[in-house]
Predict the structure.
Amino acid sequence: MQRFEPNLRIPGPTALPSAVREAGARQMINHRGPEFGALFGRIESRLKGYFGTQNDIILLTAAGTGALEAAIVNTLSPSDRVLAVTIGAFGDRFAKIATAYGAEVTKLAVDWGQAAEPALLREALGRDHGYQAILLTHNETSTGVTNPIPELAAVAHELAPDALLLVDGISGLGAVPFAQDAWDLDVVVSGSQKSWMAAPGMSFVSVSERAWTAAETARMPRFYFDLAQHRPGIAAGSTPWTPAVAVLFQLDAALELMEQEGAEAIFARHAACAAATRAGLTALGFELFADQRYASNTVTAVKVPEGLDWKGLNAELKKRRLVLAGGQGKLQGLIFRVGHLGSVTLDEILGAVGVIEEALVAVGRPVSPGVGVAAAQRAALDVLAAGSSGTGSSGEVARA
Amino acid sequence: MQRFEPNLRIPGPTALPSAVREAGARQMINHRGPEFGALFGRIESRLKGYFGTQNDIILLTAAGTGALEAAIVNTLSPSDRVLAVTIGAFGDRFAKIATAYGAEVTKLAVDWGQAAEPALLREALGRDHGYQAILLTHNETSTGVTNPIPELAAVAHELAPDALLLVDGISGLGAVPFAQDAWDLDVVVSGSQKSWMAAPGMSFVSVSERAWTAAETARMPRFYFDLAQHRPGIAAGSTPWTPAVAVLFQLDAALELMEQEGAEAIFARHAACAAATRAGLTALGFELFADQRYASNTVTAVKVPEGLDWKGLNAELKKRRLVLAGGQGKLQGLIFRVGHLGSVTLDEILGAVGVIEEALVAVGRPVSPGVGVAAAQRAALDVLAAGSSGTGSSGEVARA
């Protein structure tokens, strides 16, 4: 049965609630005027809560990749030594940016699907701790794994106290608890099209005082992403270059909805939808790709079973207007990914699991009718009953 | 008399037509899917016409300043010699970007309000023509001056045939005729919030084959703005990083409106509104800031008369919901600027001139009632009757 509207279950951009969509249709305003200043102030102050920080948050008109570049070029100099802890395609990209700007990058690469275990970082820093910065991914979108950031940060602070911690929080912040200040992270970035329920185009960079100090001597060249050009405007609510005003209208509306829902409820909703996705797909006979001790609450990666053609299955899904994401890079054709972040609710996950069941039948892989949705529903209710929302503060983020 | 809606007369972001606004409220789609690919293709192909090029056009999620950075870092290496022809704040910014990335920049600075006369460039290149690149501003937003780009390009080709011509076309393209290929310009950039009638957030970079060749050996570091990462996706209609999808929805709608209106009619509309602005303000007793031989068809800069306090006048304008722009940098308090680009129509200019008359009276500068609007109306009709839309191909762009 075909839906009237697609069920957009990719890990961003995410479907926008009506109030957010409609905010995108507002007439333009003067981006140097008081109305924009108030908008900027509301957004920046509400973002701080989800970042868990008292830092100023810089709003960049760019995709998240631009914000990752900002994190690097503002804090480092060419030939600085950088440890890039990478667990997937986006960790690799973060490392590539540092390399492009002349850093001497050592990669601590973990098998895709695994998290970076704190013991592994301990071992790496035991061998060599002369790094100016350590790059960490909070939630790896390509594999559906959430790293144990607080534990990794603790190891880094113990063994490499002078290294700056630069964290890609693009696809996790706003969906799971995060505490930049408590965990003592130097730069954390996120992007509007992920858990924030807005269109893509804006990204956010939270910069610690230690990182601002590093910026004073950092010699990587920069202009558009030069955060020092942004800092003076924060008090007045203005940006040095013309910002993506309509995306900020949407973000403002989305943060208002998030305020009404409350952070705890948002985190619980994500945990429940993630558990439902994992349970539903497992019940349909799929194997999950990620180490389940570190399974992400925003995206689930699923192995394409041997003998099943992903393209054929995906064609059936598309016919039914369920939009999933394929694998990236070396995982193309080997996994598919289900996004459950932002405005996601349980009914959409149940719908997605139901459609996947239909599509399996259509490609000649019969399953026992209803097992997927039943398992998904039970798992979600279990999570909600247990009141667990994944604290992100232990190594056991949102166990299935 | 206060309008219900502000009359947004700043040089971008510009007011959006309803069809464009509403496109900003569309639900998100998969930015890796066929629907996005078709959208991308329509936009890229329609932009080509206004750029006057057969080049691929790269769509960047960034303010125009990001596109200027892309123009530089993709074509140059540190310590390359660059001649920055600057006639205002945005020309200065272009030069600063080149300096930030280590180019050896020579500034050919013209008094603000003046254009870069071809003879001046001839003289500069006669003294020294060992430049790898020449930076040119098409339309200088801070002063309301349009440079004679074809004549400047001809001088550059004659005296410095190996120099790349990098052109800031941000606030002029789409409003006046432009011919990148005929004028043999290497990189030309523009931005969505100017004449394109869409929200800010996307910028465009048209790259000649000569510039692509330069990119192969250019050593300035780059990642987010690395155009080579964008080029392979153009055929398929995809971008390497998540694009500002909602801005592209709007841009698509705006380009459809532009298609319906026709380029000639768009150029004539801008010429008429510009002439009306200049004539109306002159009739009200103001002196125009720009050399009128090169007066811009998208923005008019006006001197604040001696003894008149801009803040006081602007407060009266704001009460009446007319939103103008002040002076930038060293022109703060000395000029104000009226934007007449994008969706601008004559009635809005007449309204603006009328409100300025009211505000003058309110601050004790009585004017003869109606002289401004009458002069504005007459000037616009003269332009439309003459069929002149400013060819941009002579040094005499849209003489008043």
